[in-house]
Specification:
Blueprint lengths: L5 H11 L1 H7 L5 H13 L9 H6 L9 H10 L4 H5 L1 E4 L2 E4 L12 H17 L4 E6 L5 H9 L4 E7 L2 H14 L8 E6 L10 E6 L4 E2 L9 H6 L2 H4 E2 L4 H15 E10 L5 H10 L3 E7 L5 E7 L6
Parallel strand pairs: 3-4, 3-6, 4-5, 6-9, 7-8
Antiparallel strand pairs: 1-2, 9-11, 10-11
The structure holds S-adenosylmethionine.
The site of S-adenosylmethionine has 23 residues, from helix 8, strand 4 and helix 11.
């Protein structure tokens, strides 16, 4: 029997497994499937240089070495598409990802927008160089998206407790270096939150792990639980408050006067964390809703007490 064309096979794969695919990949459709597959296959020796028309009409030679078969078998196993292709889009850039980093989420783009507003305010207030920190940088999506947008030189640091995540962030910094002001600087540091970091910052941003390991576990999508790094997602329930108290205290002592802290968090816990932030000498603490009216972000400022 003649081998079926890759295009026909793909169409049939999608139609036959649509329900299962939508369970694993909410919102997935045939156009996205084809785009991701084509991009993935093109990077392999077998299909390198193929035009789209040539690729879709090529016969599918079914064997485990064929990148197209490899793609479909990973998809059937529920591996996130971003991990299969090794790329993810966030804000205005493409980022390399692997199972060692969280796949950057579109909801974190609002955090970038808020950071850019705050930096625009700082730019109006001072001509001095601005400094920013990103705690738990993962792929580097937040800090690199911010650096791309700011025209003036910025001194940035980004920390992570995972050395393999920092390697991915470094690669993304390398790939995006020509889009960033040449006098800006990013220092990637392996540490716990801000431990051992000297100096002060105008802005600190963080999308830390914020899911309680036990209490919140049931609501985590099985695909996320199975494939994304647990260090990026979970904190032990019993350490939760203490972990954030230490985070807020270090942020409070690392911000310049009027400096701002922006964080993404869990909608069930942010109000409680806002109270904690206030106790840790942060001021003007506010919980901000996302576009679906869910409380998802925290903003706070450093202000010296005036007696
Ligand atoms: C939710 S992910 C966010 C990744 C990235 N900033 C983003 O928004 O896509 C949290 C990150 O924090 C890192 N992390 C976890 N515990 C940490 C700690 N104690 N200190 C520094 N980074 C930590 C994880 O390795 C992970 O990269």
């Amino acid at each position: 029997m003649a081998a079926r064309a890759i295009g026909a096979f793909t169409q049939r794969f999608f139609t036959n497994r649509k329900d299962q695919l939508l369970k694993n990949y909410p919102g997935f459709n045939l156009t996205r499937l084809k785009r991701e597959l084509f991009h993935f296959a093109l990077r392999s020796n077998m299909y390198n240089g193929f035009s789209e028309a040539h690729f879709w009409s090529a016969p599918l030679l079914e064997n485990s070495q064929n990148p197209v078969c490899l793609f479909f078998s990973q998809l059937e196993n529920g591996i996130p598409v971003e991990y299969i292709t090794g790329r993810s889009y966030f804000y205005k850039s493409e980022f390399q990802v692997s199972e060692e980093v969280l796949i950057p989420r579109s909801e974190s783009e609002l955090l970038v927008e808020m950071a850019l507003n705050e930096l625009a305010n700082w730019s109006r207030k001072t001509d001095e160089g601005l400094s920013i920190a990103d705690i738990g940088t993962g792929s580097g999506a937040l800090v690199l998206s911010i650096l791309r947008e700011i025209n003036r030189p910025i001194k940035a640091i980004a920390t992570d407790i995972s050395p393999s995540a920092l390697k991915i962030a470094e690669r993304n910094f390398f790939n995006l270096r020509f889009t960033i002001n040449k006098n800006s600087d990013l220092n990637l540091i392996h540490t716990d939150r801000l431990e051992g970091i000297e100096g002060k910052f105008h802005l600190i941003i963080s999308n830390p792990p914020y899911i309680k390991e036990k209490a919140d576990r049931e609501l985590v999508h099985s695909q996320v639980n199975q494939h994304e790094p647990h260090v990026a997602l979970f904190l032990p329930d019993e350490d939760y408050s203490d972990w954030f108290r230490q985070l807020f205290e270090s942020i409070s002592s690392s911000l310049y006067e009027e400096g701002v802290f922006l964080m993404e968090g869990h909608e069930e816990h942010l109000e409680e964390l806002a109270k904690l932030a206030q106790k840790c000498a942060l001021s003007d603490v506010q919980v901000i809703n996302d576009y679906n009216e869910r409380p998802r972000y925290l903003i706070a400022r450093k202000k010296e007490w005036i007696n």
